[in-house]
Amino acid sequence: MAAALVISSAPALATGTVQVQGAASTSVMVATALPAKVKTTANLNMRTGPSTAYRILLTIPQGTTVTVTAQASTGWYKVSYAGHTGWVSNRYVSIVGSSAPAPSTLPATVRTTANLNLRTGPSTAYAILLTIPQGTTVKVLARASNGWYKVSYAGRTGWVSNAYVTTSTGTSTQAPSAPQSTGPNRTSRVVLTFDDCPRTLSSFNATIKYAADHNMGLVIAPTGNCLSSFRSRYGVDLAALARAKGQWVINHSISHPDLRPLSCAAAAAQLGGSGVHTNFGRPPYGAIDASVRCAYDKVGMAIWTWSRDTRDWSTKSKSITVARASAAMPRDTVLMHMQWQGFAPDSLRQIKANLANRGVNVCRAYHGSDGVGAVARTPILLPSSLPC
Predict the structure, then answer these.
(1) pLDDT tens-digit profile of 238-297?
(2) Distance between CA atoms of 33 and 291, rounded to whole angstroms?
(3) What sign results for the dihedral spanned by CA atoms 115, 203, 322, 278?
(4) Fewer CB atoms < 10 Å away: N or C end of the chain?
(5) Alpha carbons 108 and 38: distance in angstroms, whole number
(6) pLDDT tens-place string over residues 182-224
């Protein structure tokens, strides 16, 4: 039986909504007009650009009405307030004259960041029509309230998950919008992250294999020099090995300098050189200033630091590192390093068990865009929301 379509409209916003009733009931945005004004629903940071990667200009108090002058493809609004012009997240505003949250602009096209299933409806409950290859640009026809896009590809029309597409269609990626300290982890799970370089190839392989076998999704941040060294010595790509085991890989510069003394261009060269080319990166030492933010903007990366530091490099103690990581709270990003004691199968085993005893789970290994089946290779570009 065909799904029933119920079309409604909101004349004040010149928008349309389609309710798809079948395996799920989902609202679909088919058009969007720019509102004249929006009201903040929380104390809201105004930034120099349309994501949290940009510098904060000021904070707009909750309940303030501001004038809208533009909207970015990320959904963020360009507004004027107190003599300043900047950008605010569309998640924390409501349209003046409407009780509904401000909708996002519908992009003309999106590009897949993984091999992505095209489905008959906007969720994994619907049947698969075909698989769209990674890196394919497809035309967008509509968007559901859960974020999924209706697209056309190879003569077929269907739905794809927004977690595995980017609105950037060029060779450079668009920096996604994500909290700086917790990145694209929008779940209650803990993400264990490891910087720098492993001591040996065997220790690296053993650790990522253990993570995959025990459904743990780690975030690896190797330097470019580390990748070059292992390619030269062993003919292997550490980033590719990690991705093949369902682990996520982010940028950590070429040689791990403090980027703050560098110009924007020089810092961008550190990020765009021989290291990992993706859409998230971690500044060495977590050192950030305006020049560093400029560099990340220039290469199209969002900054992802951490919310819990084990200081494993200082203690050099397995028991202390495990204990500090095991104290993580839901949604924490835990910082460790591949050359120290946390990056080992037994350490991962203890950390996962200790967290579970407290009712806290770790991020799961990647199982494809649908989150089912065997552990799969992670895409080079991280989704805006990790499937933890």
Answers:
(1) 999 999 999 999 999 999 999 999 998 899 889 987 788 899 999 999 999 999 999 998
(2) 35
(3) negative
(4) N
(5) 24
(6) 999 999 999 999 999 999 999 999 999 999 999 999 999 999 9
DSSP for 101-165 reads BPPPPPPSEEEESS-EEEESSSSTTSPEEEEEPTT-EEEEEEEETTS-EEEEETTEEEEE-GGGE
* Structural domains of the chain ordered from first start: 4-31+106-166 (2.30.30.40), 37-95 (2.30.30.40), 191-357 (3.20.20.370)
DSSP SS3 for 69: strand
Contact between 24 and 121 under an 8 Å Cβ cutoff? The reply is yes
How far apart are the C-alpha atoms of 283 and 259, rounded to whole Å?
Answer: 7
Distance CA 248, CA 382 (A): 7
Closest CA to 272 of 195, 173, 184: 173
Beta strands across the sheet bearing 44-47? 56-60, 44-47, 84-88, 77-81, 65-71, 37-40, 93-95
Looking at 135-276, list the stretches that DSSP marks H as alpha helix, in order from N- to C-terminal side: 201-213, 224-234, 238-244, 264-272
**The tokens of 40 are what?**
């903040």
Cα–Cα distance for residue pair 370/220, rounded to 1 Å: 22
40 and 80 Cβ atoms separated by less than 8 Å: no
Q: What six digits make up the tokens of 80?
A: 């004027």
Q: Give me 246's structure tokens.
A: 């369902």
Residue 87: exposed, middle, or buried by beta-carbon count in 10 A (0-12, 13-18, 19+)? buried
